[in-house]
Fold this sequence. Notes:
Layout: H1 9-27, H2 34-53, H3 57-64, H4 72-79, E1 80-85, E2 98-105, E3 108-115, H5 121-126, H6 134-150, E4 154-160, H7 167-171, H8 174-187, E5 192-201, H9 202-209, E6 213-217, E7 221-223, H10 227-234, H11 241-248, H12 252-257, E8 263-265, H13 276-294, H14 299-311, H15 313-319
Parallel strand pairs: 3-4, 4-5, 5-6, 5-7, 6-8
Antiparallel strand pairs: 1-2, 2-3
Amino acid sequence: MTQYMDFEKPLAEIEGKAEELRAMARRDPDTDMTAEAKALDVKAAKMLDDLYKNLTPWRKCQVARHPDRPHCKDYIDALFSEYTPLAGDRNFADDHAVMGGLARFNDKPVMVIGHEKGNDTKSRIERNFGMARPEGYRKAVRLMEMAHRFGLPVITLVDTPGAYPGKGAEERGQSEAIARATQKCLEIGVPMVSVIIGEGGSGGAVAFATANRVAMLEHSVYSVISPEGCASILWKDADKMREAAEALRLTAQDLKQLGVNDRIIPEPKGGAHRDPKTAIAAVAEAISDMLKSLEGKSPKALIKDRRDKYLDMGDRGLAA
């Protein structure tokens, strides 16, 4: 059953009426509601087009957070073969908000790492809603070091509202763990590509996305803080999140202009949650293209490429 967002309420009514007509026809075969249902389908399709043609930044945040949007586990299950999860940071614990392990992509060995939010109440609690603790970032560092040692490309899938801000996480060195993960991204001499598949929140996202190539799904967002958090700090009013979303320039389109991401991956009409299979296929194509663009580069060239990308980012943004 489709979960509708606030701005989709008119669409929900039309699609609901069309489904009611089909249900009536199923209950009473003598009642032909086909023409009426089809007319409503056409109207719904046009409304869906109009709604998603010019989404505001705040609405894009809502789409990026949609619970039915494909998550890291969905991409790993669909795109990678022989996935072997690797657990633990060899220091404190295993963080279930971070998935990672050895796998094959297009039949070539890779290391895949990503945030996992979960898809129901139980899994969301287990995954801490995709908010990683220090042990999650330290696990990622361990996997990146392993990838560097064995010459494996690193693929990261980013989908987090931000790193977990709890007391225990701070006591175990949350900021240091994020900094170490970001540093490790810059140090490894293997191709590294990253895709923002939903939310790219703050340093919790940067720790996985400091890559040679960064792609964003069309309706994903990437920002130093959530709109609600920004509004609470600047205006002392979380209800001003719409204004904050505008000011943060967090959409894939804005960030492409600023040079933060290298590629925008188109989503199916109505967002990735309406057609996960098509969205996942588009991400696969983008990852494949980005890895091809890095083929044949030496470890030194890959590290220089990555460092130059981030050192030049401010200048590229100002020039844009």
